[in-house]
Amino acid sequence: MKAQLVQDHSHGRKILSEIVPLPAPLSLTVLASSLCNLKCTYCVHGLGAPWLETVQRNGHFFKLETAKELVDGLKAFCGKGVPPLCRITYAGYGEPLLNPEIADIIAYTKKGRVCKETVIVTNAVALTSELSDKLIDAGLDLMRISIQGITSKEYLEQSGRQVNIEKLVQSIQYYYSHKKAGQRVYIKIMNEQLKSDEERAAFLKMFEDCCDEIAFESLVPVLANASEEDIDQFQKGINTGSVAQMRICPLPFYSLHVMTDGSITTCCYYDHAAVLGNVCQMSIQEVWEGEQYHGFLKKMLADAKCGIPVCEGCKAYAYTMRNEDSVDAAQDRLCKELGV
Predict the structure, then answer these.
(1) pTM above the 0.85 mark?
(2) Hey, which end of the chain has fewer CB within 10 Å, N or C?
């Protein structure tokens, strides 16, 4: 098999409790599109959510002009001795490749040298040879592809759309065979979408020659309003063998999320706990060092999720994080440093 089968995603991770508070976020997640070309049965586009309509009214796509505001602000931040971010990921609950400016956005991000890695998370259904060429030339570092089935029938069942599976594989193969040195492709499918060992083997055979890494991940509860009954069904993390044990959500201690309209939020898991500003009016540095952001962290530290409705109903972090990401061990120290 050409691709490496990834089973452990923890290699090279820092122990977060040893390095917080951070002078700058380690990563940003940017919602490149609030629209999707699939309606997967487990996703908000398939399940529906009242807040999604609000998000879409604020803008379907993250625009290049907004990306320039974001990147230029980060350049000024890095110019003050702050190291580049580890990564900027263009993802979220929409399909990034539907954004007509996505290649230009990646190119501007790379040109700004504000992060070590640019990432797109995509279903690849909209990937064409022309778009592949643009993304490769833009310097995209990592394309993470989520597969929804190994037949057209399974795609229709899982995502509500008849997808030509042969054409999908060919499109991914084109990107993989034309990418430059250092550019990578990661392909994954959820265990729940495969019914047998034979289907697992078929998935590996279908995609092993068009990616660098390939993986089986697990479905996890990321909707904030998931019931206790629903949550009890899940016994594994998204790509770990167990659910992480942590009291405090670590995500806002190392990351921020940017919406299509430039709004900066604390979280990328669907509904949002707090809007901290907008990249068109203030920089990531101003947010990261600002009173509102620090006030949010203080609430998390004082009583984990007390008084934050979205956070009170959310357990997504335990399923998507690893134990190395926990900040629980640093709670007392962080309380002293932040004046809780």
Answers:
(1) yes
(2) N
Q: Tokens 């796509």 belong to which residue? A: 61
> Other C-beta atoms within 10 Å of 20: how many?
18
Output b/e per residue, 294-332; b: 16+ Cβ within 10 A. Answer: eebbebbbeebbeebebbeebbbbbbbbbbebbbeebbe
Contacts of 326 (CB under 8 A, 6+ apart): 16, 17, 244, 245, 246, 248, 250
Hey, what are 258's tokens? 């940017």
CB 284 within 8 A of CB 88: no
User: Measured between alpha carbons, how far is residue 275 from residues 60, 261, 267 in Å?
Assistant: 18, 12, 9
- Which residue stretches of the chain are H helix? 16-19, 44-47, 50-57, 64-78, 102-112, 129-138, 152-159, 165-178, 197-207, 228-231, 251-254, 284-288, 291-303, 309-312, 316-320, 331-338
Whole-number Å distance between alpha carbons of 23 and 218: 33
* pLDDT per residue as tens digits for the range 241-270: 556 678 888 989 999 999 999 999 988 665
Type of residue numbered 232: D
Q: What is the pLDDT of residues 123-159, one digit of tens each?
A: 999 999 999 999 999 999 999 999 999 999 999 998 9
Backbone angles phi, psi at 331, to 5 degrees: -60, -50
